[in-house]
Amino acid sequence: MAEGSVIFDVDGVLLELTAEEEDAFFVPFQRRYGLQGLSRDWDSYKVRNDEKIVGEILARHGLPAGEAQGIARDYLDVLAATRPVEIPGARSLLSQLQGLKLGIATANFRSAAEQRLKALDLWHPVSTLAFGAEGSGHKRETVAKAIKASGLPKSRIVYIGDNLNDVEAGLSNGVHFIGFARDPARRERLAQAGAKHLSGNHLETLGLVRSLLAL
After folding, report:
1. Are 196 and 167 in contact (CB under 8 A)?
2. The predicted structure's pLDDT at residue 2
3. Which positions ≥6 away from 20 have C-beta within 8 Å?
4. pLDDT tens digits for range 3-29
5. Nearest Cα to Cα of residue 150 among 108, 104, 115, 210
6. Architecture of domain 5-17+85-212
7. Domain limits, the chain
């Protein structure tokens, strides 16, 4: 197979973000400080990145920034009791793309993404090029780290995401971008944001990757 790389967002592309998993993120704030009613709208935070969101919540409520590591550990513990759900076709897609450099760029903690993907035996294919919220900021920064680590020219890299910030991340980094969403209305929003290549299922995703990388 010709040399190339495919970088995946995790939630909405490889895994569903279940309500139980979403709630798990906020459990430590309630248990430790009694904080309830925190916004579940990820776009309502200054930076859509788990590490930054933890910091923002702590600062907003006058809590020490040093508590962030404990919050993250507690989150992973709560998350371990949840059951991740695979996006249909994700396993087959990863298998079909063996031979390429596969990776992830997620706004979730990398450690949380690893835990969730391992639970479904989906971690190994993306493990050597995996970047998350830790030490990063906006999604474009996380994607840039994966691009640099791949060692490949941008023309040989495809990034796949499902949110508007993913579109911006792909376009601003100058790589091929595929907007993935099973919901037609969501795909339309991705198109309006500038996504030229759209997929509603991972069979389509595979065809687009092969076309973009001339495989």
Report:
1. no
2. 66
3. 82, 83
4. 999 999 999 999 999 999 999 999 999
5. 104
6. 3-Layer(aba) Sandwich (3.40)
7. 5-17+85-212, 19-79
Q: Has residue 99 got a pLDDT over 70?
A: yes
pLDDT tens across 112-124, in order? 999 999 999 999 9
Widest CA span in the chain = 54
Neighbours of 59 (CB within 10 A): 11
Tens of pLDDT, residues 129-150? 999 999 999 999 999 999 999 9
CA distances in angstroms from 122 to 95, 150, 195, listed in the order given: 10, 19, 26
For residue 177, count CB atoms less than 10 angstroms from its CB and return exposed for 0-12, middle for 13-18, buried for 19 or more: buried
21 CB-side CA count, 13 A? 17
Which pairs from 142-149 meet CB under 8 Å and 24+ separation? 142/49, 142/105, 142/106, 142/107, 142/169, 143/7, 143/105, 143/169, 143/170, 143/173, 143/175, 144/173, 145/105, 146/7, 146/103, 146/104, 146/105, 147/7, 147/173, 147/175, 149/103
Best CA proximity match to 86, nearest among 133, 43, 121, 44: 121
